[in-house]
TrEMBL record:
Annotated TM spans: 196-220
Keyword S-adenosyl-L-methionine carried by entry: no
Gene Ontology molecular function terms on file: protein serine/threonine kinase activity
Protein name, per record: Serine/threonine protein kinase
Protein's UniProt keywords contain Acetylation: no
Keyword terms, alphabetized: Kinase, Membrane, Serine/threonine-protein kinase, Transferase, Transmembrane, Transmembrane helix
Length: 235
């Protein structure tokens, strides 16, 4: 359970201009979701764990910092809630402030310490595309590439962009997680994924897309993380 904080940022005026009302959604977050939600960060390099979620709220996905939830009465909105003890809320809010409106990213409409109210993005992560055997066309990779160049133009840094936080929707690419885009450390995650796409996926797997079990995808993901950590240490 996360207490309501006085440290909030109301960005909802723009949302009203789009003809949508977020006040009932925020009220539902405080009255129905936060008092009963149980979310925990068990390991820093693995997604957070949601132990309990009150009805009718639904879990969309989890990342290393937070979980993303939606209410069936507000299908175009989601709330991203940070697990207790996980930092990054302030930085992510600043990223959304700099982003403004861009078709490859979500938008933040309201924030209180520990959670963000965001525009919902629809699609399938590239990670799940591989699991389901869905074709990933080159346009998706090009769209994400252009979106990350836009990030750099705003003075930010594409960081930790991997198959679980980029999506495909109607043949176009979207970037879901922007939480690490203020980190200045070099990150090769997207360049390595893109290289694997053009060298392995496109010439071989694209033409015969077979479902890949999650345990194989998780093994590849964990092996890659270990490889990058060893590389950074100079091993």
């Amino acid at each position: 359970m996360l207490p309501k904080s006085q440290n909030s940022a109301n960005l909802s005026e723009q949302f009203y201009h789009n003809g949508l009302e977020i006040s009932p959604f925020i009220e539902s977050i405080h009255q129905e979701l936060l008092p009963h939600l149980e979310i925990e960060s068990v390991e820093p390099y693995n997604p957070v764990v949601v132990h309990h979620l009150p009805q009718p709220w639904q879990l969309i996905g989890t990342g290393n910092y937070a979980g993303v939830f939606y209410h069936p009465n507000y299908i175009d909105l989601v709330v991203k809630i940070y697990a207790p003890g996980r930092l990054g809320w302030t930085e992510e809010l600043e990223v959304y402030r700099r982003l403004g409106s861009h078709p490859a990213f979500s938008q933040c409409f309201y924030a209180e310490e520990g959670f963000l109210v965001l525009k919902r993005l629809y699609g399938v992560t590239l990670y799940d595309c591989l699991h389901r055997g869905l074709k990933i066309p080159p346009q998706v990779i090009k769209d994400i590439d252009q979106a990350l160049k836009y990030i750099q133009e705003q003075g930010m840094y594409p960081h930790d962009v991997h198959g679980r936080n980029v999506m495909m929707y109607e043949g176009r690419g979207l970037v879901v997680d922007v939480s690490d885009f203020l980190r200045e450390q070099p990150c090769r995650a997207w360049d390595d994924l893109k290289k694997a796409y053009y060298l392995i996926y496109l010439p071989f797997l694209y033409w015969l897309p077979l479902p890949i079990p999650y345990f194989i995808l998780d093994l590849v993901r964990k092996s890659y993380r270990l490889f990058r950590r060893l590389t950074l240490r100079g091993v």
